Amino acid sequence: MRVCVGTTVHHPEDARITHRQIRALLDAGHDVTFVAPFTDCNVTPRPGIRAVDVPRAVGLRRTKALRAAASALRAAVRDADLLLVHDIELLLALPRRRPPTVWDVHEDTIGALPTKTYLPGPLRGVLPPLVRAVEGRAGRRLHLILAEESCRARFPGPHPVVPNHTYVPPTPPPPPGDSRVVYVGRISPARGAAEMVEIARRLRPYGVRLDLIGPADAAVRPMLRDAQRAGLLDWFGYVPNNHALRMAEGALAGLSLLHDLPNHRESTPTKVVEYMARGVPVVTTPLPRAASLVGRVDCGTIVSFGDVGAVADAVVQSVLRLREDPERRAAMGARGYVEALNHYHWPAVAGEFVALLERWAQVPHAVTALRPGRTVPA
Questions:
Q1: pTM flag (> 0.85)
Q2: How many beta carbons lie within 10 A of that of residue 29, not counting itself?
Q3: Packed helices 221-229 and 193-203: angle between N→C axes, nearest 10 degrees
């Protein structure tokens, strides 16, 4: 099967797109063409795919990226058996002549609007009905994959759910240490950037450092740079998901301090499961699914929402209690690991994902993957 995968918004090393779905397709022997912003993200395409380079869609400047993506997709799908797109924007750039097309829904576009600080006020009121119209049309005309059961409220119908699970090491990772706290993922105001800087400031006298592993929104980069220059924390920037999670191993705790926003409330933060998979105790805000999982498994601590100082104080107290009790944190890490291995291991659902695409493409059997080609500029 020849699959064309497209994104202009997500990083070409996005965990769900590249490390899970594309890897599953390649492992099954299928051929993948990947239309993505390699150059803008400073990424060298991985072996095994045919890479098509397009500009990245950022902020309000998306017209150039959308036009380039439309042209790239027209060329890329000429010999494809299936087109798989990951951005709602790409629904406006689909080729007229195309194979069966799948939209992988793993973001709540309307729910995320409050976090888009670059949007002018009037546009925030205009966009929701437009987004709903685009989503409704896609639900009627395309195949949809949902990342969460909660997405069914937006997309009624028999759309399959392909959960956002992770790779869990086959052997238990090292037990949690006592000298550092980690955060893995994109860093933004709504994901607790200010809180984490304050946490780092308050933990410093106790000899506990904070490692931030992930790209940051433009609005918070100056704050992070200042904190790093002051020696409060280490900010590593973007690190591929598999390497980032190995860096998290052995940490005292993993932070998930998402704010109480619509696009956060009904999903289980992937980073919570990723910390569990690496044997790291979780410290999370009380979003329903995250709090339910952490509380049921007893693999971490739940702190209340609040202002920056209140959240930082609660997190620091939780971290210091874990530091004083190595047996407790080791038990939390072990329980989280076992739960992740038994219920959140991506290879357990990867085969179902590939079979789903094969059925939609009407290609019942795997084919030998083609040798990787060079990056093709759009």
A1: yes
A2: 13
A3: 10
